[in-house]
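Hi all, long-time lurker, first post. I run a small reading group and we've been trying to get comfortable going from sequence to structure in the token notation. Rather than ask abstract questions, I figured I'd post a concrete chain and ask someone more experienced to write out its structure so we can walk through it together at our next meeting. Sequence below, copied exactly:
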Amino acid sequence: MRRAITLIFLLVLIPAYTALAVTPAVKEFTSGNRKVFTTAGHPKSKGINMKVSYPASWLAKEGERPNIVQKFHSERGKGLELVFITTKQLELAPSESDLKELFTPTAMKDFVPPGAKFIQAKPTILEALPAGILEYSMRQERLGATIASQFISYIFVHGTTMVWLTCGVSADQATTPTQLARKMEDFKPLFLLMANSIVLENRWR
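-- Answer (accepted) --
Happy to help. Here is the structure in token form:
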């Protein structure tokens, strides 16, 4: 019930200009045609027991890299939109004041991958925990092809585990930064809904 009320609230908050270009994935998600992934018992979860919802037409598969728990790929794995869960083990559980400092825009600049361009960052709250939202763009070369991508990451810490829900859109090298940014704006409503679907099971017991 709480999640249903929050979903309605988020839909009201989505800016009017994005409502004019609601993607099929957003319609799919808000219509209830979605699946739930849980990290419970996953060897890469580092103790995080987390649920997140994603569009039913997206392909879910385990990440190939050590810290990527799961990936969700649009159009049954054939699209250019991707969401993935990453975990990182911390030595100590940070204090609330440490977290507030960690999620300042200045501090989050240090989270931007090498070679990427920082766009913006801001603190937020996720599951009643201090969190951050980080946006950046980058161009990557692989096997002779160049791909332009823009990402938005929702980051939080629970206990001694840092969790990233990173959402990205991509296009070919001919795409301008403005076109890529416009595509990201089209998908932000979906990414926000996915981030807000996160439930930390062992936090509320």
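A couple of things your group might point at:
The longest strand covers residues 129-142.
The two ends are 17 Å apart (CA to CA).
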